[in-house]
Amino acid sequence: MHADTVRIVRHAAPAVDTIITLPALPPLPPALRDSIAAAGGIVPARSDSAGLGASRADSTSPPHRRSPRERREPSQVPTFDQPRWVMLRSLAVPGWGQFHNHAWIKGVLIAAGDGLLRFALVRDERRLGQLNRSAIARLGDLNAAAGDTTAAGVAYRAALAGGDPQQIAAAQAALNAADVRAREASDVYNQAASVYNALLDSSTSRRWLLGGVVIYALLDAYVDAHFRTFDVDFRVDPALPSGSGGASGPDLRMSVRWSF
Asked: Do residues 196 and 259 both lie within one domain?
């Protein structure tokens, strides 16, 4: 007796796709759709008779992201337009750096002030030379008068030693005259020296003032050359968060940039 093996074959039931129809969504207000699109978000498709397939495709697609705004690189400044070269312009020619920076009024004032001070210094040098020669001449007169006074004093002492009244009187008169000439020569020399010293003090003050004008011109040209490449601009950036009060929409961004 043998037993037959019975193979039982089970047929798989065919798969049945179940389609679920969702209720239609109300359309978004235009203002809300624009704000979502500006912020780089996902704008849901309007529900209509297109069915679930379009909605399923929209829900599985990656969200659209706004590409970052390209940053503007600072423009390259030519070599001789760089601040240190502009500063050297003002050192070479007063006001040249200011004119290069289009600061016309400051350039004129610096050039005029520098020119007037230099002219005054040249005039002071000439005048000081004249006063110096005059003072030297007065000093020679003073030394001669002092020598005469010394000689008159020696003669007077000799006359006193001789005991002759006439010689004593003559020697005393000569000594008195020598003293008068010495005092006059001393007064003239002191006056010449006083005028020379006063002009020298004024010339020294003008030298310091000229140095201050030159330093100011250098610093002003250097700083203004930097600010010529200083860039401040306002741009609308939708990537920024919305303002206060729940209002949506693009905001302003301030960009500050300068190059050295």
From this structure: no
